[in-house]
Amino acid sequence: MRIISLNANGIRSAERKGFFEWFEQQDADFLCLQETKARTHQLVDDPAFTRDGYHDCFHDARSKKGYSGVAIYSREQPDEIRTELGREDFDCEGRYIEARFGNLSVVSLYFPSGSSGDERQQYKFRIMEWFAPVLDEWLNSGRDYVVCGDWNIVRSELDIKNWKSNQKNSGCLPEERDWMNDLIDTRGWVDTFRALKPDTVEYTWWSNRGRARENNVGWRIDYQLATPSLRERLQSCSIYRDERFSDHAPFTVDYDA
DNA sequence: CGTAATACG
After folding, report:
1. Which CATH number characterizes residue A23's domain?
2. Which stretches make up the Endonuclease/exonuclease/phosphatase domain (predicted)?
3. How far apart are CA A243 and CA A13, in angstroms?
4. Which protein residues have Cβ within 7 A of any strand B atom?
5. pLDDT of A24 over the 90 cut
6. How many domains is chain A partitioned into structurally?
7. Separation in Å, CA A241 to CA A10, A35, A199, A216, A237
8. Catalytic residue (one of A29, A144, A150, A159)
């Protein structure tokens, strides 16, 4: 079972850059996209976003055009699609979609960014507080979950080039890191990349200001978090070097069938 | 600075 996740930074932009041709070569069972930046109607009727051999589902932002938005592509037809978690100021921003296949749930999640200002940072903190118990419910549901997405939070010094200078910047704030680490170290979620590569320094996002990407001034803020039930099924993972499609890197995790 | 619509990350 192969799951690929990518913050597409605009699915229409990524498509123009050949993302789906690349995707079709990857032999993936599931693809989770974040920041599709399109209304669902702009995607569902366009063959460019409908791939042979895959089912697709989308959830867009009701609140703003061209903003946020998530998607899942799957070989198997889902039993059920969920897009609402019952909190209006979260549900309206197109940040969550879940596809269910038997006992497996695959989630594409776009966690809020706080980098645009204090208003959004306070929103991010409120979502953190509310979302942790939601994750606990999933963890205790008896279902297998893989929560793929852009979490906009690094965990440790291994996950960011400029650790010291970013301590006061959103995504690397101590209270954000504590929250993320609590999910994994205390509550029991598996950071699949870190579980497979305990000491590896690799990033999933680079600012497009300056020469961040060519200097590898990056952050690891994209994760596939899995329930402990999937830990023994973890095989391998890779973050792709490919810079063609987005300011984030696509990454793959392979799980035993 | 890139995406997609003029804000947001």
Report:
1. 3.60.10.10
2. 5-248
3. 13
4. A 9-13, 17, 37-39, 64-67, 112-113, 115-116, 120, 152, 208-209, 247
5. yes
6. 1
7. 19, 20, 18, 11, 13
8. A150
Average pLDDT of span A181-205 = 97
Q: Which nucleotide is nearest to A38 (CA to C1')?
A: B4
Residues A40-69: tens digit of each pLDDT:
999 998 999 999 999 999 999 998 999 999
Instruction: Tell me: pLDDT of A209 over 90.
Output: no
HSE (side-chain half, CA atoms, 13 Å) at A82: 10
Is A145 annotated in the active site?
A: no
pTM: 0.97
**Catalytic: A150?**
yes
The torsion of the CA quartet A60, A58, A32, A257, rounded to 10 degrees, works out to 150
Q: How far is the CA of A188 from the C1' of B3 (A)?
A: 36
Closest CA to A257 of A88, A79, A76: A76
